[in-house]
Write a structure and sequence with these properties.
Chain lengths: 389, 109
Amino acid sequence: MAARPAIAEFARRNLFRSTLDAVVTVVATLVIGFVAYRLGRFVFVTGRWDVVRDNLTLFMVGRYPTDELWRIAVAMCAGAIWGGLLSGALASDLPDPRRIVVRIWPVLLGVLLLLALSTTPTPWVVAFAVGASFMVGRIAGRWLPRRATALLAVVALVGVPLLVWMLTAPVGWDEWGGIMLNLFLAAAGISLSFPLGVLLALGRRSKLPLLRAVSVVYIEIFRGVPLYVLLLLSALALGFFLPSYVEPPGLVTRAIVALTLFTAAYVAEIVRGGLQALPKGQTEAALALGMSPTTVTFRIVLPQALRAVVPALVGQFISLFIDTTLAGAAMGFFEVLNATSAAQAQAEFRGQQLTAETVSFVMLLFWIGCITMSRESQRLERRLGVGVR
Amino acid sequence: MQAVPRGQSEAAEALALSGVQRTWFVLLPQALRIAVPPIGNQYLNLAKNSSLAAVISFAEITKITQLTVANRSPAVPSFLLLLGIYLALSLALSLVVNIVNRRLRVVER
């Protein structure tokens, strides 16, 4: 008897072991094949991708003035240098390029897709400049001591407001748009809601009754209402809560406030979970060593509690990033989803039902952002040793 | 299901239960009990996310509030009322989840 080919043996063992297995295999193959066929046909044959190609700038940066776009490129290069310095300070040896590709392949895929769609040489120049900035920072960072990360954190605290100031010099952030606005909203929401959420979590476990009551009421109210209604309320009614001599803030500022207040309540509950999971002996031992309660909280309790909840926190921040489109739907500013409606309303694309093309492009952009955050959080989790120790 | 102790699965195997029986009678009943709080949270989210139907112009309560506000109904009381309704819904649901959780919780010996 001739030896069976490996594929037939594999199929017999894993796909057709019993009648039920055979039925499942056949049905699943038919369904997957049909979906793949329709998807492939849409992507390569019927999809009208010219609407995306012609509006690439609109999707990326909205209506940011064309003459001022260099500011965005400069900001990206500055961020890349900073990121390079940080990764250089943390790991001195240059890693194998193949491992970098495996690590950030979704981002590379997105960048390559954007470059393939672009019709002018400028995006290539910008992409090259950002890559080169990162490499310069990475190589220079090798001479930084590991302790320089504290210095880099201070640089970021000073540098980010400076960059935002530079970007808002031509037009305020209420005039921003595209995926840039979504990223800005998410970054602002994350950096503001995290400290607020930690404070609320500590407040909920505080021994002071008033502080505890305020934290509990805040958390339960904001966890009990839908984000969309909160966004509508702040869009339409925030002016009523402010004294009349204060100029009401713009829509983007209102969105940041609403997203921050909402996410902080969820962050607080996540952090509280981490605080509860920490053995009581840690606090008792630290107090027995004569540390002050503040030192115990910030040096002993919080570092361990936060390390345990990194995955849940990143999950919350991913949904914050996704919810920035909801802010656009509620408030109507020009973030990327509203940019797709604007693109479909243009004279050459009007009434041609191009929703599938534009929205699936936006979905891909968000998928790249979210899968990268999630993969980096898993990496961080492994490095911090969550679940091992 | 990963939180169910391995011994449960091994004991079921030792009693010669089939794979389906092991999953259906031993693992799932315990796993679902452990999963009551997160499942409850997810249902709460679902209830609140029903407000998103307003984005595609479905005439649920959020959309109706938007329309009444557009028709010069005062914005602040209308939206505070809407928030109150959702809050009541959420608190009622979380009460149910808590009761179910108390009933079904795995009692540690």
